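Hi R.,

Here's the chain you asked about this morning:
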Amino acid sequence: MPSPVETFLLQHHELTRRYFLRFGAVGLVASGSLPLLATSIARGDADERSLAHLESWLTKPDEFQDVSRGDPMPHSLPEARRAEVGLTRETWKLEVLSDPDHPARLHEPMSAADRTALDFAGLMQLGETHSVRFPKVMTCLNLGCPLGNGIWEGVPLREVLWRTEPRQDLRRVFYHGYHNDDAAQMFRSSLPVGRVLEDPFDLPPVILCYKLNGQWLTPERGGPVRVVVPEAYGFKSIKWLTHVYLSNIATANDTYAEQNNDVDSPLKTFCATLRFPSEVKAGTPIAVTGYAQVGISGLSKVQTWVHNEADEMPEDGRFFTDAPWRDAEILPPPDSMGGDIPDDRVPPNTMGFDNDTGRPLNWPLRLTKAHWATLLPGLPPGEYSLRCRTVDSHGHAQPMPRPFRKSGHAAIERVRFTVVS
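And here is the predicted structure, written out as tokens:
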């Protein structure tokens, strides 16, 4: 069975194959030179029939890449132990309390001791009138590849926050999940309370999430309930949620902040190559394919630039602003969204999708992913480098406007290739 990375590459191959078919024989020849970047694909295990049935945009829940923390991983606990510590839908409880170190004034805190903690049935009751669903790519702050793209469903966190009847001294909300009853393993994230109470810039709300692609969250994906912050990197979307604290603290107190990370930086827009020949014949058109993360500032273009290593580099600094960039094509939404979503159809009332057709209202969708491809003209013999970049919807070319590594990956990728006679 293919690994998640192999499956992702197979999906990408099917999308980009259609693009190159438009160029007829030239496109087919060029795309035939592309390497297959996973072991099982290189062995030829997958044929065109299997490619046609693979998901193409949403990731199957059990094929998300996992960067969870814990020793042991909470999702690996035996079912009886998970039930005992509240990691099943039948036993889950959420406490919403005032921060004891920086207290906010709450009239009705929700605690296990007082038997007022929220249980799963109570969350489902809220979901009857307040549930939302939206697409989001899950990405690690310090990685340059997506962990998976899904439709996340849950109840806005604010609906639960208001149940505590906060009165004053509330500036920040922080939260953590189950951590093996070991304080040293606790992983905590936080948000300004304004982001929980309001959704700026047409963002979806911060949610207490219980479904992914229309299916109950599995323990591997953080079930029974996790936080999902639409515009944030994965460390904000805490798994196995158990505690929310309402606080008067003035600064972020995320665990990730202790590792010199910018913990309030939202998703960036960037791109990378996926399939590219390491060697091509002189004069032969060159097929290039890749993917893009569509960050909070959207995506208007993907561009490539080929540089002959024998030539001097542009004199415009490390971001190559004045290089001769060439537009690639952002591929359209696929016919099937994939992801094992029920009936192969995005559910009604999913943000960003038409209720009648189940199709995206615009493309590419912000805070998700997209694929791209281009067919470059043939080149004379030599050693070359290819770079790719995005341009967001505000005209900022990657890695701007936030080029700093600890605020999320956005470096311009460079791949080398040889043109032979």
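One quick note: Residues 215 and 237 are 18 Å apart (CA to CA).

Cheers,
M.
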